[in-house]
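During the reporting period the student researcher (J.K.) took over the structure-prediction task from the postdoctoral fellow and processed the backlog of single-chain submissions. One of the processed entries is reproduced below for the supervisory committee.
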Amino acid sequence: MTAADRGKKERSLSFGSQAAAYERGRPSYPPEAVDWILASSPDSRVRDVLDLGAGTGKLTSRLVERGLNVVAVDPIAELLDVLRTTLPDTPALLGTAEQIPLPDNSIDAVLVAQAWHWFDPDRAAAEIARVLRPGGRLGLLWNVRDERLGWVKEFGHIVGLEHDWANRTIVLPAPFTDVQTHTVEWTNYITPQALIDYVASRSYCITSPAEARTRTLDEVRTLLATHPSLAGAEGIALPYITVCARAVIGGT
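J.K. obtained the following structure tokens:
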């Protein structure tokens, strides 16, 4: 394993130490995006769904509220503990995208929110294909900050700009082909503390040296206290673009 691979693996497994901040600070997903991912064809109805890389259950909740049979899988026990607290009736299993703890042909759809970039894409695609039923689908979602607005762009200069994410080309390994993409623009309304928690729960912040982590969070607090759009505000409107992709096995 290269140094870059080791660093990526460390970051991917770092979220457990900030599970509470993750739950408080991370956004959910707009219903329109989830509806697009799950849209059924006349001969294919989605009922049994796997939320892979479920974290604290931000997407899981959206699926459960639709009356679907949902299983959540994540490699980080601390995140699943939070999920189990909020969704006690939803099975929550330790596992990875490369080793999914489910039987063959048991799932209609696998959804991955904010996590595909952590996976080994070829191994994950093979495992997802294994657990999917014939004609099953894979759906991916990412929340990307809309940095066209002034304060959000300044915030991005502190924590890392995300504008390229909204324009990226999404390519999936075989057997998934004919990838369709869609975007949804929406706004998440949060408190100033939730913005700090959002930053504190980011992998680069968690894995940074203590001095760098403290400096980043202090810069966010300064922005909150001094930017004309944020100073004194009890609530913040944080705009997002949710990037969605969907595909079925063999592109059928």
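The committee noted the following: The chain has a mean pLDDT of 92.
J.K. will present the remaining backlog at the next meeting.
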